[in-house]
Write a structure and sequence with these properties.
Order of helices and strands: HHHHHHHHHHH
Number of domains: 1
Distance between the termini: 35 Å
Shape: globular
Number of helices: 11
Helix content: over 70%
Strand content: under 5%
Oligomer: single chain
Number of strands: 0
């Protein structure tokens, strides 16, 4: 990566930060949904913890809710920044400059991390006085869980932005629904063994299932399962590569058919 590429990525990142800084409703919205989810699921955890004290004692439900939301936030933050370029019909202007597609992808990933942290940190801090649960007590493994889920979110985003680039804003709803397709086989709130056998086979190809199985092993049994996280990372690398290729192919097709300046429905 040369200095010119760094300059273009930095310029795009500054653009996204200025847009974010100039709109306090955006900042509130970023923090609002993770906080509301935390409060609702936290009280559910307290309620069911009366019958199963280990749920409340370990903070497992609250922890997985917070960590799961990092996937959704990273995906939405990435895709929303791209959608804002489409809504303002700015893609054509961006690529008039010597901007390469991978530079746009890096800038979107950078602002995605920033927006995800803005949303997740206040929610994680509120869990301490509300429920006496600190997700930070997980320590270094928390970063690995977080990174893997953010990586999954980016992999989904590559596919979604490629579809948006090729087929326009008519496919916008995919940005919101695709992450939830993974939820049933991600084993967020229940172990993998809960699923029927045929669905367990599918779940073993989903990186998020290994993340949450690893979290349960750590929080409930005190066992660090590095093999789970290794499998999650390998699957994420595969899916991110496939997603990036799909975006680059869509970009090439969009440029060929003049779609960069026709980003409407």
């Amino acid at each position: 990566m040369n200095l010119s590429s760094l300059g273009r990525i930095h310029g795009l990142l500054l653009r996204y930060l200025y847009v974010l800084r100039s709109s306090w409703p955006r900042i509130i919205e970023i923090s609002y949904w993770p906080t509301i989810q935390l409060i609702i699921w936290g009280f559910v955890s307290v309620h069911f913890g009366a019958a199963q004290p280990e749920i409340t004692a370990s903070g497992i439900l609250i922890s997985v809710v917070l960590v799961w939301d990092s996937l959704f936030r990273s995906h939405v933050s990435y895709t929303l920044s791209f959608l804002e370029e489409m809504w303002s019909r700015n893609l054509g202007n961006l690529f008039v400059a010597p901007l390469r597609p991978w530079e746009l992808m890096l800038a979107l990933a950078s602002i995605s991390i920033i927006r995800t942290l803005i949303g997740m940190i206040p929610a994680a801090l509120l869990a301490i006085p509300f429920f006496g649960v600190s997700v930070f007590d997980i320590g270094f493994p928390l970063l690995i869980f977080f990174f893997n889920l953010v990586f999954t979110g980016w992999a989904i985003s590559q596919v979604v932005t490629g579809i948006l680039l090729r087929y326009g804003l008519g496919a916008e709803s995919l940005a919101w629904v695709l992450p939830f397709m993974l939820a049933p086989v991600s084993c967020i709130y229940y172990p993998l063994s809960t699923l029927p056998e045929w669905l367990q086979v599918i779940a073993k190809f989903i990186p998020t299932s290994y993340v949450f199985e690893g979290m349960r092993a750590l929080l409930l049994e005190g066992e660090w399962r590095g093999d789970f996280l290794q499998k999650a990372f390998m699957l994420n690398t595969l899916y991110f590569t496939m997603g990036s290729c799909s975006f680059l192919l869509a970009f090439r097709s969009a440029r060929k058919h003049g779609l960069l300046i026709q980003t409407g429905e």
